[in-house]
Amino acid sequence: MTDTAVPLALRPLETLGRRTADVVTALGRFGTFLAAAVAALVTPPFKLWAFLSRIVFIGYRSLLIIILTGAFTGMVLGLQIFLTLSRFGSEAFLGPAVALSLIRELGPVLAALMVTGRAGSALTAELGIMRITEQIDALTVMALNPMRYLVAPSVLAGVVAFPLMTAIFDVVGIFGGYLVGVELLGLSQGTYFGEMQTFVDMTDVMLGFWKSVSFGVIVTWVCTYKGFNVGHGAEGVARATTQAVVLSSVLILVWDYFFGSVWR
Amino acid sequence: MITVEGLEKSFGRQAVLRGIDLEMPTGSITVIIGRSGGGKSVFLKHLLGLVRPDAGRVLVDGVEITGLRGAALDAIRRRYGVVFQGGALFDSMTCLENVAFPLREKFRLPRPEVGKRVEAALAQVGLEGMGGKYPAEISGGMRKRVAIARALVIEPEIVFFDEPTTGLDPILVNTIHRLIQDLHRRFRFTAVMVSHEIPEIFEIADRVAMLHEGRIVEVGPPTAIQQSETRVVRQFIRGEPDTAEVS
Ligand SMILES: Nc1ncnc2c1ncn2[C@@H]1O[C@H](COP(=O)(O)OP(=O)(O)OP(=O)(O)O)[C@@H](O)[C@H]1O
Ligand SMILES: [Mg+2]
Fold first, then answer.
1. Which ligand is the nearest neighbour of the Cα of B13?
2. Domains held by chain B: number
3. B70 in helix, strand or coil?
4. Full residue range of the structural domain in which residue B226 is found
5. What value of ipTM does the predicted structure carry?
6. What's B20's domain CATH number?
7. Is this prediction's pTM over 0.95?
8. Any idea which ligand is nearest the CA of B33?
């Protein structure tokens, strides 16, 4: 079949066509994968225990890194925004500026990136190893759906854990901004929190919330898919893990932009 | 009865199976022998419905499984017990949990019943008291035995063994063979086994099939295979080095 004579001039076109077909097929498989996970999620039996252990895996074990990065992000924001605002003599708005940056943008995005690095990569590696050691095949031949046992709980846990991690990131970050702005640079506490209450709306909170929910789906979807469809051997697992983290991170930033530009 | 007709499978340019025809009668032990890398595991995976063939069919009691998916395929697999070549134990679970898993998840047996059966299954493979360990904490041979216990604990109608005894010491090889034989006498399951244990497997096999270069070159009762006139079969059974390969 490969030897059917294609005129030389048309070769690039043929390659392009084949590449396009490959990409479309891959996207199709990627989409079907999520559909299968959702199908496993909404039909009994439900794997409550697997779900809870995934919450621990994705959420609880990421707490420390979330608190640490949240605190420093808030402190950096507090410092930089204070310095900027003081040029216009409007330091009073430090509170809302820090809070809005965190709640609308940085909280969801940075929390998602941190969880991807900590838990997403581990998720891919774990599933990848289960694939190459035939543990996934073992489940399959037991007539047990691996999507139900391995993928669906992770995706649901992502949907639950990402907003929680984001909320913690936001709160810690706002407190970090408070430490720098109020305790260090001398802004009054009433101004910092008072202005925040005036300017931060429920819509801002909801925007951050829905962003983090969608990041939860994106990251667990990409990471489980890459783990599930791993290549051969240790090298295959390593490559899949790298790809999962890179693809998740890129998709987080791209999706963040489009989400933000559609929903203001 | 499992029937395979004209099974073909290539990976890229490499033709691994080139038209396999084989019948594995109900209630008998069929042993598949052949060179390493010859496609025995790939063949088994076709019977399990894990790999789709390029051509040919696999029938389990008259039902073609090659085109089946989802619930229909699972209905067939519910009758299976499988020992993978590498054991394929769930490494996040202890050995005990591994053996209990199919009973709990597949058959939803009550806890005390599961406990009793798991104890018995582990004892059968000589691993009583080892249940609390994780697969990473035990030796390769022990992992194999846990895998055998996990496959047989559900008392399957059809059992697939991919080299269940490779890597075990000679005493264990015979212990495992005897165990399989005992269980076979009791439950009369259909067994398909890939094995390199020559001559031991001739004692437990009802039929032996030799897979060579993607085809079944000879199949028959153990005595017939042992007295085979076919060159590759004789060479394989006697373990004569492949002169063409060395030079
Ligand atoms: N998923 C796969 N992709 C590509 N090639 C494969 C795949 N699985 C198996 N092969 C190839 O098929 C051939 C047969 O492999 P198989 O594992 O069936 O051998 P085997 O007879 O079981 O050998 P052994 O006795 O060593 O276990 C090998 O050459 C292997 O490279
Ligand atoms: Mg093999």
1. 1
2. 1
3. helix
4. 1-79+186-247
5. 0.91
6. 3.40.50.300
7. no
8. 1
